Amino acid sequence: MPKIEEIISSLHPLEIKTLLSFEESKEQFASEILTSTGLREDRLRTALEWLQPKELISCVDETKELLVSLTETGEELSKKKILELRILDILQEKEGVSILELAKMTDEEPKETNVAVANLKKSGIAQIKEGGFVERIKGADNSGWTDRQQLIEKVAEAGSCKREEFGQGEWEIIENSSRKRGKSKGIFRVSEKVDRKFALTQSGEEALGLILERGLTGEEISQLTPEMLKDGSWKTQSFREYNIEVSFPRIVLGKRNPYRTFLDFVKRELISLGFEEMRGPLIESEFWNMDALYMPQFHPAREIHDVYYVQAPTHCKEIKEPNCSNVRDAHTCGAGTGSKGWGYEFDKERTKRLVLRSQGTALSVRQLSNSPKIPGKYFAIARCFRYDAVDSTHAPDFFQVEGIVLGEEINFRHLLGLLKLFATEIARAEEMKFVPAYFPFTEPSVEVHMKHPSLGWMELGGAGIFRPEVTKPQGVDVPVIAWGLGLDRMAMVALGISDIRDLFSNDLEMIRSKRIKTM
Fold first, then answer.
1. Is the pLDDT of residue 516 over 80?
2. Each residue of 92-129: pLDDT tens digit?
3. Does 13 reside within a domain?
4. 3-state SS of the chain: helix, strand, coil percent to 5?
5. What's the rounded Cα separation, in Å, for the pair 5 and 220?
């Protein structure tokens, strides 16, 4: 270990000020040092981190305490009261109010108002009468809601409260209303504050003695100014030594987000292979998103749990002809496609309903309807939306690389070759496999699976040869191979990421360090 004299000569003013705080007591909590030095919390943290490797101080103990504060939702409720109490105030003055009227009077969404009324009904404070009118039950106890409001105002006034300041009943309310993982509208935020206790080591005591003996105050000057040279004050100042061996700060250059870089890479690769790019709207009609793909109108994917419907406007104005009639005939009776169709009455009004695009294949069938080149090959990088639980490999919105190749000589082997290229050359997967699959719009159909280094096998996407029921209604009478692969999952392998959410991370260090994996 270097001599104490050498250590002292290299100490930063922040370190000297921190050591001086140990003059009265050889052991102190960080909060006590913060008070005695007057340093900012971040500067004190830096000084403590510097002093420990030099073995001048050591951490000997730590305490933890829970602190309660309000979330943005809680701050808002501290000013205008929780919705249930506002509804009770309205019902106190006016009997028999509909939920829609309550929403207007409270300036809240009908959905939120409906939840609040359900809470009051469950608590036995309100009831819903015939005709959907809400009434307050006279004499019902609403102390549970007033207690919650008082607790919100208590925390709002203090800004932050310790766990010890709450009774058991209050703490149960806080726990039930605090923000947790996956819960976006918590009222209270419970955080843990750690306070560490530091003590001078033997070397630290020697260093402190020398600092006091030399009269160092931590007020050293680190820069010589023109004013000091003019008035001669530099002669009486204590200058900090300049160490040319200290590493200079890292210079961080701007760069593209690694996922954006990957998307650009995929686009360049496909264009270099002669593919033409397809584009289309994020909001699609059911016709292009499903019906034109020979998905029957009673298909499970149409249910609300899988597709996002547009609230307003709900329907598009029209579907171009003869495409709509051709697709209708293919669904009802096959209409010269070689099949009997699905055998149901096609609803031309339903096919106009608007949805958020759930699959990039909607762009491919649109391209088929626009007199594509034969032979021809097209691709799209399409953002899609599906109602899905978020985890390490799923997200409610995602990118697909969608594509079609059409021509007289195109066959299933060409498709498998392209899929292998995507898995190995684009996603950089070391292992991949094909699995038989079923899709309403392709026959034969296949799924591509690739092996993630840490997550194991995962589905990359589906592909197949478009059925005649898809191509012939659009005026195409040659084989068409098609695929829709998850770009997000491909990027996970190519960038070495184990959680799909990290593709959109705000962690700057991760964003700066990620590179597309080379073969």
1. no
2. 888 788 878 888 888 888 888 888 888 888 888 888 88
3. yes
4. 40, 20, 35
5. 17
3-state SS, residue 312 = coil
| DSSP helix/strand/coil, 457 | strand
pLDDT at 368 > cutoff 50: yes
CB 344 within 8 A of CB 298: yes
- Chain centre to alpha carbon of residue 302: 26
User: For residue 418, what is the domain's CATH number?
Assistant: 3.30.930.10
Containing domain of residue 199, as a range?
4-63+194-220
Task: Report pTM.
Answer: 0.53
Give DSSP secondary structure letters for 250-294. Answer: PPPPP---HHHHHHHHHHHHHHHTTPEE----SEEEHHHHTGGGT
Kindly report the CATH number assigned to the domain that includes residue 8. Answer: 1.10.10.10
Cα 380 from Cα 371, distance rounded (Å): 17
Please give the Cα distance from 378 to 275 (Å, whole number): 5
CB 64 within 8 A of CB 194: yes
471: Cα separation from own chain's centroid: 38
List the structure tokens of 15: 């370190």
Helix (H, G, I), strand (E, B) or coil at 50: helix
How sure is the predictor about 275, in pLDDT bands with cuts at 50, 70 and 90? very high
- Residue (of 190, 259, 515, 194) closest to 399 by Cα position: 259
**312 CB neighbour count, 10 Å cutoff:** 5
Report how many domains make up the chain: 3
Please say which residue of 220, 238, 271 terminates a domain: 220
- Give CA separation, 470 vs 164, 234, 323, 467, in Å: 67, 86, 11, 5
How far apart (Å, rounded) are the C-alpha atoms in residues 441 and 295?
A: 7
**DSSP assignments along 102-167, one per residue:** HHHHHT--HHHHHHHHHHHHHTTSEEEETTTEEEEPTT---HHHHHHHHHHHHHHHHSSEEGGGS-
Same domain, 411 and 455: yes
Q: What are phi and psi of 285, to 5 degrees?
A: -80, 160
Distance CA 326, CA 319 (A): 11
Band (pLDDT 50/70/90 cuts) for residue 166 is: confident
pLDDT at residue 456 tops 80 = yes
CA angle, 277 then 279 then 281, to 5°:
170
Contact 452, 498 (CB under 8 A): yes
**Token pair listed for 273:** 């292979």
DSSP states of 318-367: ---TTHHHHHHHHHHH-TTSSS----S---TTGGGBEEE---THHHHHHH
**d(C-alpha 321, C-alpha 2), whole Å:** 86
